[in-house]
Every structure is written in C-alpha cells, then in structure tokens.
Amino acid sequence: MTVKRRKAPDGLQKPGKRMWSAILTEFDLDERELLVLEQACRQADAVAALEAEIQGVGARHSGLEGADAALADRDRAAHGEARGLEAAEQSGASRSGRAV
After folding, report:
1. Within 10 A of 9 (CB to CB), how many other CB atoms are there?
2. What pLDDT shows up at residue 78?
C-alpha cells in the first residue's frame, strides 16, 4: 500500500526538508521507504550541521584537532546518509522494475 505523506516530518531542518521534497517529487514511496527517507533526511541535517561546525572551527582555531574530529563526524554521517538513500533507491527501483 502506498502512503501519500508529503509533509516533512517534524524536526527536519532546511537540508532535510529539501531532500524530503525532492525525493517525494520523484518517487512514490511506501511506509517502509518513508522511514528510510526520514532517516536519510535527518542525516542530511546532521551533515549540514557538521559542515557548519567545521567552518566555525576553521575560523576560530589555527590547530586542526577540532576540525579533524568534526571532519570525522561529518564523514561518518555522510556515509550513513548515502547507505540509506541507496537502500531506498534500490527498493523503489525493484518495485517499479527499473534497473538500479
């Protein structure tokens, strides 16, 4: 059963809301896929927040310790986001008969 939920989940920030809207404009997702999308959108928000933190650390410090930690966090968050999107894309493609 396909669920027509277009409103972004509460708590998403601008990057997550953009992703939510872009994906649902292109794909008709079921409830399970919407849950995966929501998590990917939250990861997009986390990556954006870490990017902002990295920029702030670079402006405040000449040392790299804080920036290194923030970069590592961002990379872990981005990797999780990519895995979630890949799973949602494969699931949607397999249901529609499209090649992945």
Report:
1. 16
2. 74
Greatest distance between any 2 Cα atoms in the chain? 54
**What φ, ψ does residue 56 adopt, rounded to 5°?**
-65, -40
Residue-range domain boundaries for the chain = 29-96
Residue tagged 């927040």 (tokens): 49
Query: Tell me: the pLDDT tens digits for 47-97?
Result: 999 888 888 766 555 555 666 666 777 777 777 766 666 766 676 655 655
Q: What is the three-class DSSP state of 99?
A: coil
Q: Round to whole Å and give the CA distance between 5 and 35.
A: 11
pLDDT band per the 50, 70, 90 thresholds, residue 11: very high
Among 18, 8, 11, 19, which Cα is nearest to 88's? 19
